[in-house]
Each structure stands twice: as C-alpha cells, then as structure tokens.
Write a structure and sequence with these properties.
- 57% of the residues lie in helices and 12% in strands.
- β2 and β3 form a beta hairpin.
- The protein has three domains: 216 residues, Rhopdopsin 7-helix transmembrane proteins (Up-down Bundle); 145 residues, Reverse transcriptase/Diguanylate cyclase domain (Alpha-Beta Plaits), CATH 3.30.70.270; 281 residues, TIM Barrel (Alpha-Beta Barrel).
- With 767 residues, it is of the alpha/beta class.
- The strands form three sheets. Strands 6-7-9-10-11-12-15-16 form an eight-stranded mixed beta barrel, surrounded by four helices.
C-alpha cells in the first residue's frame, strides 16, 4: 500500500513540530525555579520520550508502507513498542502534572488524585469496552481487535482523561495552566491510542493521524507551561470532598454491565480485569482516606491539646494564667494534699510603664516570671493573673510557704537591668492556706484579701490571711453601700471644734467636722468612712453637703452678731475638680456669707501631688475671697520653697510638733517653764512669710504654755474642747463677753487684702 504524499508530508511536519516544541519546552524549563521547574522537567522528559516514540513509529510505518499487509508480525512488534513508549511518556507527563505548584501539597494528596483518576479511567475504559466488544460492536468494522498494544494505549488514554478530569474539576480559579497541560497530556494519550490502532489494524492513515495529534498535545503543554498565573490550590481535602465522585463512574459501570448482559454478552478477562481495577482503586482510595482521617484526627487532637494548653498559659511570660491556676487548684483539691496560695503584686509598676514605656514593662514582667521559675520547688506552679499580678501555688504547709514568700520578697525586689537603666520595683505578697478555704474560689479570695492588706500596710511585705480580714471587708462593703444614702436619710451632721485665742482661751473661730451616725452601725469614725468615700467616689457629694451646711450655720452665727469664722476641710479630689471653685462661690452666695469668714483647709499631703496645679487651684479659690489654711504642717512633705510658693493665709502646726517640749530655767528666775522648739521655728517662719499660725492638738496645760512661750496666739485641741454641736459652740461665744473674744485670726502682710474688715483685728494683734 502506497501512502499519499500529503499524509507523508503531514507526518514529517508533525515530527518536526514535535521536535521544535520539545526543544522550546526544554529551554523554557531551564528558566523556571523551585517546584515549577521540577514539574516542567518531568513534562519536558515526557514530551521527549513521546517524540522519540512517535518518530520511531513514523519511521516504521513509512518503511512498511509498500508491503503493509505482509508485515503483520513486524507491525504488532512496532505497535507494542509505540504503545509502551507512549504509555511511559504518559506516566511521566501525569507525574509532571501532579508536581505542578498547587496541585498536591503532599504525597498522600497526590496518591488520592491518582486513585480518583484511576476510578474514572477504569469506568471509562469499561464502558468503552462494552460498547466496542461483542455483541454491541458500536464501531462495526472499525472495532479494535484484542491487540495488547491497543489495550495498553486505551488504558493509558483513559487514565490520562480521568486524572485530567479530577485535577481540572477540583482546581479553583485560575485554572488555565492546569487545564492546558492536562488537555495536552490527554491528547498525547489519545495520539498513542491512534498510533496503536493504526499500526495494529486500521492502517497507516489512522496511525499518521494519531501521530499528527501529538504536536497539538505538545503545543497545549507548551502553552500551559508558558502561563504566568499562579495555579489555585487543588481541593483534595478528604473531609470536604468525601467519596461522592465515585458514584457516577460506578453507576456507569453498573448500567453498562447490565446492558451487556441483556444483549447476551459475556464477560471476558478484560471486563473482569477492568472491574477489578475499579474495585481495588476504590478500596485503596477508601483505605487511604481512612488512614488520612485517622492522621487528621490525631493532628486535631494534638492541636486541641496545644490550644488547650495555650488557653491556660500567659502569652507574655509563659507562666500559667488564671485558667491554668484554677485547673491546678481543682486537680489538687481532689488529691487532698495541703497547699498554700501566694498572691504577688508589683508595687509601683505603673510608674515603670509611664516612665519607660510598655516594652520595658513587658521585659520586667518576663524577668519576674523567670525569677519565679528559678526559685520555686519542683511541682510548684507560678501563674500570671493579669497586669502585674502573679500567684504561686505551693504544695506545702503554711510555715514553709511563709519562708518561700519571704525569700521571693527579696529576690523579686532586686534591681532589673535594662538598656534604659536599672529599674527598681518591690513586691507585696499575700499568703492563704487551703485549711482556711476548702473551696478554690474562697482560697483565691483569701489570698487576694491578704495581698490587699499587705498593700495597705506599707507594701513590700508579706501578709498572711486572717479571718478578721473578712469582717473588715464585709464592714467596708456595708459602709460603702450605706454611705450612698446617708445624706438622704439625714444620718450626717456637723460638729464644731473651737479655735481660741491664747492665753485668754477666747473662741474666735471653729472647724467644721463631719460625723456619721447610722441607726444600726452606730457612730462611724471619720478616719474610717472619709478614706472610703475618697476611694468610691462619694467624697464630692459629701464635701458639697458639708460646705453648704457649714455656710448655713456660719450665716446664722453672723446674723446673731458673733464675729467668728469657720473652716472646712477640703480633700485633694475636691480641690482638683474643675467645678469646685464654682461650688464654693455658689455656696457663699446662696447663704450670704462674707468670703473672708470661710477658711478652706488643705492637708500638707496634698502638696506632694502636682504642685503647679495645686497653686493654680488655690489661687482661683483665693480669688473668690476665701482664706486658705495649710493643715497638719510638719507631718507631711512640704518644703520651705514650696511654702513660699503656696497661696495660703494660715499655717496650722501639727500636734507632733506641739508635743515636742523642752524644760528651761531662765537665769534669775525660780519658776520652771517649758517651750516647744519646733513651734518656735514655725512661728518665726510663718511670721516672716506673713502667715497667721494656729497650734493644733493642744491637749494639756504644758503644751499650752509651750505654745504661748513660742509666741503663738491661736490654739486648737482637746484642752479647749472637742467637736461640739452648733448650739454648744454658740453658748461658748455668748459667754465670751470681753471685746477680745470676738477676735479673728488675721494674717499679716501677704494676705491682708483677703481678710475683709474685722472689728477686733487690731485688738487681737495687741493680745
């Protein structure tokens, strides 16, 4: 049989195109990197092998063209060589397809894709066999014979189609690269089938037509390899996909097998083999899926344990967090082993963050955690509860835990070296034993209570829990609750402690003092409820009530003709409130009180805050006409320089200075006298600054004599009377009939403009 010249020219052109495409693909592969380069090397190797096989087949076909029918044995051998070569190239191309980036991240995923493609390919081959075999013979005379080359080539083509279908369907967009390369691999498989059929049975025209399909497949592979888009991740996840993909191929095989039996066909070895391949592929796929599910469940359990541990771990320090501590306490409570909980809190840690920044603060916290780890016994648990609060759970008895707490006090109090400088912080520790709290929550609460009292009692100390703390906490909670309605229930009242001129002991003024009598709690001490009011935010309404009540009582005394002044204590919180100056002015106007008759007392401890802000606030108050007194001078932190800057009118000497007395016996006198040296110094200082001075806390005649000896003209204290109701002080004012009894403490130079006109000021200066 003579081949047409066009067929020969087409075959040669196809071979040349295949060789050219192979060269271009190999050249472009060398420019790739990483996984894409390895995949393209496999694709190029498959193309080279397919080209060599096709050229071998073309040479054999052309050589046997003149005596085609006489070379049956040679044709079968050539068909086998071509089928084996193209099957091998198909396997290499499929391997290259699977190695493309994004197709299969693991070998297990690649194996699942291969088995899925085999399931579809086996079903496709079985349906084709039913349609082409007896008795259907859908292709008639073109039905292929049972040639081994045809069987191998058809199996290769079916497998390539199945794998391409699986990869193409499961890949998300963009999928151009995968689709082009997969289509090229499929065409290579179909070309091999065409060559095998042509050589074995149909003739050289069919064989050459199959060979002509090869360059088209190579072109698609080349175009897919040239694309620059990133392939999407193939969805090979066994949990989401399941096994629904296998139902359609199995249904096709079942329907085709039933059709074959109805047409009186029988199953040969080929049909049984294809069905077995389908079944074994499904079994292998499910076995692999089961193994992957188990591995997935194991990884899930490990991750769950990891995240559970993270949920019980502080991310900054690596210590246990509050959940981890609670878990350890609950596990320990079941064992009934004695345990002690230490609550630790860094003193002044906020200053570290404010001065050096939170990064330095975090470094200090990490160093604290490291010191805790290195100084605890095996089995003890350190935890960070939040912020600068830590805890240590010890499986020990209270005496041993107390010793550990004392040691930690020194270890955590050592300086912390940092590039910004050495940082010093102390620590307060609260100790609570499990014997005092059988429940976990109660143990945590007891440790927190002990820590709170360690803070209140000076910090940098260890405090053991005492049951009295519970009573104090309950009383504090009750007081805070009852205080919020004390004004509305008329439980508050004022008493007035007189300020007298000495040595005549004539009342010239008074200090308004707040008292609280509760129908159930009884009399509540001011040193108990005033600090509580400052902490819970009740000091502002209490201070406003005191201011108005004091101004109201002062207006009554002035209306009755008493030349008297009244002082009111002001807390630092009130003083720094922007609206306080307006409140004072409104109270004076509402009760028609001359401003110079009202004295606002500021404790010396307030000077330790923001001095510049304090000066601005006091100056604004003095602008309203009221006078300012610095209370408890000598017990706080004010210096001479600060005293010169403060806009004040009166200096009240603290009792601690008044009580410092020394005996003296002047020459030529037989009477023994006493004097207070610090009072004398403060008196001289006050007079130099133009301030009036009042001695507080005068409790006995010796202290009075010392005050008089120092030249102080006004005193206040137990010797002259405690806080008394308004009518009692009014009786004292009525009893003072001498003109000097109506005197008021008038400042000297610096504050004379704020005093107003007082009838007896000149007489008081002469006293």
């Amino acid at each position: 049989m003579q081949l047409p010249s066009g067929v020969v020219v087409g075959a040669v052109a196809s071979g040349l195109a295949a060789i050219a495409g192979t060269s271009v693909l190999i050249f472009s592969t060398l420019r790739r990197t990483g996984d894409r380069r390895r995949a393209h090397l496999l694709l190029a190797s498959g193309v080279v092998l397919a080209t060599l096989t096709a050229v071998t087949g073309l040479v054999g076909i052309i050589g046997m063209a003149g005596h085609w029918s006489h070379h049956q044995h040679q044709r079968m051998t050539l068909a086998t060589v071509v089928a084996v070569g193209l099957a091998a190239s198909g396997l290499v191309l499929c391997a290259g397809l699977l190695r493309l980036p994004g197709v299969a991240r693991t070998r297990s995923a690649a194996l699942r894709l291969v088995l899925d493609g085999l399931v579809i390919g086996a079903a496709l081959w079985f349906v084709g066999w039913v349609l082409a075999a007896e008795p259907t013979r859908l292709l008639g005379d073109w039905t292929p014979r049972a040639c081994p080359a045809i069987l191998l080539a058809s199996a290769t083509a079916a497998g390539a189609i199945g794998l391409t279908f699986v990869v193409g369907v499961r890949s998300p967009r963009p999928r151009r690269e995968l689709v082009l390369i997969g289509s090229g691999v499929t065409l290579v498989g179909l070309a091999g089938l065409g060559l095998a059929v042509g050589i074995c049975q149909a003739g050289p025209v069919v064989a050459l037509t199959g060979a002509a399909v090869l360059p088209v497949g190579f072109l698609l592979i080349f175009l897919g390899g040239r694309t620059t888009e990133r392939a999407g991740e193939v969805d090979a996840d066994l949990i989401r996909n399941g096994t629904g993909y296998a139902f359609l191929p199995m249904l096709a095989m079942a329907v085709s097998a039933m059709y074959h039996l109805l047409r009186m066909g029988d199953f040969t070895v080929l049909g049984i083999v294809s069905g077995s391949v389908e079944g074994f592929a499904l079994v292998a796929r499910q076995s692999l899926a089961l193994r992957d599910v188990r591995a997935y469940a194991r990884r899930l359990a490990e991750r769950e344990a990891h995240f559970r541990e993270l949920a019980h771990t502080d991310p900054l320090t690596g210590l246990a967090n509050r959940r981890g501590l609670l878990r350890a306490l609950q596990q320990g409570s079941a064992s009934a082993a004695p345990c002690v909980l230490l609550g630790l809190d860094l003193d002044g840690f906020k200053n570290v963050n404010d001065l050096h920044g939170h990064d330095v603060g975090d470094a200090v916290l990490a160093e604290v955690a490291q010191r805790l780890r290195l100084n605890l016994r095996p089995g003890d648990l350190a935890a960070r509860l939040g912020g600068d609060e830590f805890a240590v759970l010890m499986w020990a008895r209270p005496p041993e835990a107390q010793r550990v707490a004392e040691r930690l006090l020194g270890i955590l109090g050592r300086p912390y070296d940092h590039p910004a400088g050495r940082i010093f912080v102390s620590v307060s520790v609260g100790v609570a034993a499990q014997s005092s709290a059988p429940e976990v929550e109660t143990l945590l609460r007891n440790a927190d209570l002990a820590l709170r009292y360690a803070k209140q009692r000076g910090k940098n100390r260890v405090e053991r829990y005492d049951v009295a703390y519970d009573h104090l906490l309950r009383r504090r909670t009750t007081l805070e609750h009852e205080m919020r309605g004390a004004i509305e229930r008329n439980e508050l009242h004022l008493v007035f402690q007189p300020v007298v001129a000495v040595p005549s002991v004539r009342p010239v003024g008074a200090e308004a003092l707040l008292r609280w009598y509760h129908p159930e709690l009884g009399s509540v001490r001011p040193d108990e409820f005033i600090p509580l009011a400052e902490e819970c935010g009740m000091i502002a309404p209490l201070g406003s009530w005191v201011l108005h009540q004091a101004c109201h009582q002062l207006s009554i005394w002035l209306a009755d003709g008493h030349d008297v002044w009244l002082s009111v204590n002001v807390s630092p919180r009130e003083l720094h409130a922007p609206e306080y100056v307006v409140q004072v002015a409104e109270a004076l106007r509402a009760h028609r009180v001359p401003p110079q008759r009202l004295v606002l007392e500021v404790t010396e401890h307030a000077v330790a805050t923001d001095l510049d802000e304090l000066i601005r606030r006091l100056a604004a108050l003095r602008a309203t006409g009221v006078r300012i007194a610095l209370d408890d001078f000598g017990a706080g932190y004010s210096s001479l320089g600060q005293l010169r800057k403060l806009p004040i009118d009166i200096l009240k000497i603290d009792h601690s200075l008044v009580a410092e007395q020394e005996p003296i016996r002047p020459p030529g006198e037989g009477e023994r006298r006493v004097f207070a040296p610090m009072v004398d110094v403060v008196m001289r200082l006050g007079h130099q600054l133009g301030l009036e001075v009042i001695a507080e806390g005068v409790t006995n005649p010796l202290e009075l004599a010392a005050v008089v000896e120092a030249g102080c003209r006004f005193g206040q204290g137990q010797l002259f009377g405690w806080g008394v109701p308004a009518e009692h002080l009014e009786a004292m004012l009525d009893a003072a009939t001498s003109p000097g009894a109506r005197a008021v403490p008038a400042p000297r130079n610096r504050s004379a403009q704020n005093l107003g006109s007082v009838d007896s000021s000149h007489e008081m200066r002469q006293a």
